[in-house]
Amino acid sequence: MFRGCSPQDIIQGMSKDSEGAADDPLEAARRVLREEADALRTLAGRLDGAFTEAVARVLACPGRVVVTGMGKSGIVGRKIVATLASTGTPALFLHPAEAVHGDLGMATEADVALALSYSGETDELLAILPALKRRVRSLVAITGGVRSTLARYADVVLDVSVPKEACPLNLAPTTSTTAMMALGDALAVAAMEARGFGSADYALLHPAGALGRRLLLRVRDVMRTGDALAVVGERASLHDALFAITRANAGAACVVDDAGVLSGILTDGDTRRFLTASASNSLQDPVGEAMTRGPRVATADQLAVEALERFERSGERVRVGEVPVVSEDGRPIGMLTLKDLVRAGIVLNGDGDD
Fold first, then answer.
1. Cα 182 from Cα 160, distance rounded (Å)
2. Would you say 319 and 190 are in contact if contact means Cβ atoms under 8 Å apart?
3. How many CA within 13 A on the CB side of residue 196?
4. Of 16, 22, 39, which Cα lies nearest the Cα of 169?
């Protein structure tokens, strides 16, 4: 009835209906969310020893969890595979229609199969059950048909039956697929917690994500070295130090004593402040008179996110934008800058000009 109408005309037409009318989109949306939330609460209260058994089988599996399902259940199954894999449980999706043409070879005797079908009578799934059951260690079913063919094949049955679909025709899989997905999440998270899978483990599986970078990236991966590192002695002139900083395209120089051990840092800001306050006002004055002594330092093996604390600590006379990286004997081997940490994704934004 709305075909060809503009969105504004449709909104105006719906607003003329009485509150709570069947075609009121807000009321329809609220009803769907309430019904699906109620179904999930019911599902949570219905969990029993079968769920515990399913988790135990996943944990004991030396291979992978092979998830299979057709149609909407297959879409849910792919999401469950992604959740399992990202939380420490190796998993793959096996399409039932492709499985009968050779893809069944993906499943091995080291695997646990997780089969999804709300009715438990999906033809494509039933076609592979006899062979799948023989190939894997055990078969776990997520179904609303606890007396279905799928349930009879399964070693463990997880009941996701719902009173009705949120679809007003009670036809389109809505509440049932929500229940399936939520139970898959519950299975993955329960296995994750039982396995002791922590944030460091998560980061290893998500190296490109923000969490992965924060938990895996070390100072050595981010610090500036070689020609990008300016190092001068305490007796060097400010003039020479500024040229060293410029050649390195840096914002500061590491200052070392006669033994080559870090004794301070010289930033552009240090130089400006010294020249403003110095009576001689000369670039020929030694670096040692203008540098900041005893700067905070980082080590190469330190997590970059830990080194970030050097930049974030309050109470500094000026804002710190560079932190020297030193070896075990205190010699400068790199420079860590706040801008480099931002570029590496350790912080979302930030600046450091001193």
1. 10
2. no
3. 0
4. 22
- pLDDT tens for residues 284-336? 889 999 999 988 888 999 888 777 766 666 445 445 678 899 999 999 999 98
- Could you list the beta-strand ranges (E) of the chain: 65-69, 91-94, 112-116, 138-143, 156-159, 231-233, 252-256, 262-267, 292-293, 298-299, 322-326, 332-337
Eight-class DSSP state of 350:
-
Which residue carries 């999706």 as its tokens? 93
Q: Is the Cα dihedral 178, 180, 186, 189 positive or negative? A: negative
Sign of CA dihedral 258, 260, 262, 265: positive
Give me the sign of the Cα torsion angle 99, 103, 109, 113.
Answer: negative
Name the one residue in this structure whose structure tokens are 């800058």. Answer: 337
> What is the pTM assigned to this prediction?
0.65
- Measured distance CA(115)–CA(143) in Å, rounded: 8
Q: Which structure tokens are listed for 293?
A: 């002594």
Say if CB 308 and CB 341 are below 8 A apart.
Answer: yes
The residues pairing with 298 across neighbouring beta strands, listed in sequence order, are 325
Other CB atoms closer than 10 Å to residue 215's CB: what's the count?
20
Closest listed residue to residue 57, CA positions, set 1, 118, 112, 10: 112
